[in-house]
Amino acid sequence: MYVDEYGSMVLALAAEYHRKYPMTEQPDIQQTLWLWFVSHPQKYKEWSVLEQKDRDKLIAKSLRNAAIKYCEREKSRKVGYELLDLYYYDASVIEAFLPSIIAESYEIPVAIKDLNYKFSKGESTDTNNWLVLRSDIATAYYRLSEAKQNVLRIRYSASEETEWKDLAGELKTTEDGARMKVQRALSSLIKNLGGYRPYKDEDVLVTEEDNDDTSTES
């Protein structure tokens, strides 16, 4: 029974997201997480045949997603903003800004000009908001550990991205190891910016591979 199996996980996640969103009530977050099990019997049934670690990973990711959705709704209700006002930073925007941030340049990056469609679809209404985005990303970048800043600095500081084999040599690791270091640094930067966009969670079978592709924080 999921109540016995996932009681400690629900308590831990509810406490974690209550700390992140102190305007919420921890018992309400717990209730939201238990409701996920009630409203997703198909997923729970399909995932229950998986190895324990794989099942726990998928359920934890879905519970975190449910917690974020609930907490953002409560925050918007109590603080007084529209959920549409939230801007979630995806990796393409961050990667477009990193070279200029590392070079301390304030000229709009060419890649951002190509991404300007993002600023005309409700996520931003001011054509100069790229400066705001740059400031947010720069602040999040400088909050990273020196080691993670260095990984991104090596990868994105040149006029062209450093080749993986060269990055691997700089970091004294394999190419796969270099990719993992960059991904972890980018993930940490996105978390500093508020995290990944919550995903739509319907009660259909989702494999571990599909869930990893969807996004997000685990």
Structural notes for this entry:
By secondary structure, the protein is mainly α. It folds into two domains: 96 residues; 102 residues, no CATH class. The chain is 66% helix and 0% strand. It is globular. The C terminus is likely disordered.
- What is the molecular shape? globular
Give the tally of β-strands. Answer: 0
Give the helix proportion (percent range): 55-70%
Distance between the termini: 23 Å
Q: What are the segments in which pLDDT stays under 50 over at least 5 consecutive residues?
A: 82-86, 117-127, 206-218
Helix segment count? 12
Strand percent estimate:
under 5%
Kindly report the average pLDDT value.
77
Radius of gyration: 20 Å
Task: Give the class from helix and strand content and strand pairing.
Answer: mainly alpha
What pattern of helices and strands is seen along the backbone? HHHHHHHHHHHH
- Our count of domains comes out at 2
Q: Please give the largest β-sheet.
A: none
Protein traits:
218 residues; mainly alpha; 2 domains; globular; disordered C terminus
Itemize the secondary structure elements and their pairings.
Layout: H1 2-5, H2 7-20, H3 26-39, H4 41-47, H5 52-80, H6 91-102, H7 110-114, H8 129-142, H9 146-156, H10 164-171, H11 175-192, H12 208-214
Helix pairs in contact: 2-3, 2-5, 3-5, 9-11, 10-11
